[in-house]
């Protein structure tokens, strides 16, 4: 797209260049041309328009390069584990939720993370919440969900949330957080 009068933007999917031709830049003004981009690797990616790369019909050119940096972040990961993995009826197990962040900076949740407990598993009467994650955690006794608040962050290197759970009926209770449940500014968990 462009705000440049008469300009035509050529941008092909999966290409690493795009161009603007036929544009008129207003006297003492400016105009913009842009395209949506997708990155396949994480990191700080710098785009440069070299000095002299812009040419006009009047023989003018850009005397200095133009640069812009795009910070591409890796999506978060999430895992759950019970310790111990087996308990007696009415016993207590500690559930650990690990939120991973392989980026150099914190990432913020764009919606609350709601982790549902499996089957007949509930939060213990005394939840004993212990966390290294800096945001608010909701873990009410007897509830079947744990919530990590919207706009909370996952620090670089990740963090954990631990709480005690119990079950009053025997059985095997597999527990997971589905793909896409952990939504952040860096994307969502894959699994």
Describe the fold and architecture.
By secondary structure, this protein is mainly β. Helices cover 0% and strands 37% of the residues. The strands form 6 sheets. Strands 5, 6, 9, 10 and 14 form a 5-stranded antiparallel beta sheet that branches. It is rod-shaped and about 85 Å long. The two termini are 36 Å apart.
Labels describing this entry:
191 residues; 5-stranded antiparallel sheet; mainly beta; rod-shaped; 3-stranded antiparallel sheet
Task: Kindly summarize this structure in a few lines.
The chain is mainly beta.
List the helices and strands and how they pair.
Layout lengths: L7 E4 L6 E4 L21 E7 L16 E7 L4 E7 L8 E9 L6 E2 L4 E4 L4 E3 L6 E2 L5 E2 L6 E4 L4 E2 L4 E9 L15 E2 L2 E2 L3
Antiparallel strand pairs: 1-2, 3-4, 5-6, 6-14, 7-13, 8-12, 9-14, 10-14, 11-12, 15-16
Q: How much helicity do the residues have?
A: under 10%
Counted by DSSP, the helix tally is: 0
Largest sheet geometry: 5 strands, antiparallel
Low-confidence stretches: none
Give the CA-CA distance, first to last residue: 36 Å
User: What is the multimeric organization of the chains shown?
Assistant: single chain
Class per helix and strand makeup:
mainly beta
Mean pLDDT: 93
- Quantity of strands, as a count: 16
Cα-atom Rg, whole angstroms? 25 Å
What global shape is seen?
Answer: rod-shaped
Query: Element order, helices and strands?
Result: EEEEEEEEEEEEEEEE
What proportion strand? 35-45%
């Amino acid at each position: 797209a462009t705000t440049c009068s008469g300009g035509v933007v050529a941008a092909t999917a999966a290409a690493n260049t795009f161009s603007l031709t036929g544009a008129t830049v207003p006297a003492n003004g400016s105009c913009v041309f842009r395209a949506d981009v997708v990155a396949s690797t994480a990191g700080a990616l710098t785009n440069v328009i070299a000095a002299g790369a812009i040419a006009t019909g009047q023989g003018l050119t850009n005397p200095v390069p133009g640069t812009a940096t795009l910070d591409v972040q890796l999506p978060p990961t999430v895992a759950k584990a019970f310790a111990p993995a087996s308990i007696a009826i009415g016993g207590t197990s500690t559930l650990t939720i690990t939120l991973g962040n392989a980026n150099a900076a914190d990432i913020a949740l764009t919606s609350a993370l709601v982790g549902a407990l499996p089957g007949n598993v509930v939060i213990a009467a005394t939840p004993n919440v212990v966390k290294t994650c800096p945001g608010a955690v909701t873990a009410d006794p007897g509830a079947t969900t744990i919530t990590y608040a919207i706009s909370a962050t996952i620090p670089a290197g990740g963090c954990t949330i631990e709480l005690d759970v119990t079950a009053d009926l025997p059985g095997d209770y597999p527990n997971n957080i589905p793909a896409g449940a952990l939504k952040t500014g860096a994307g969502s968990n894959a699994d």
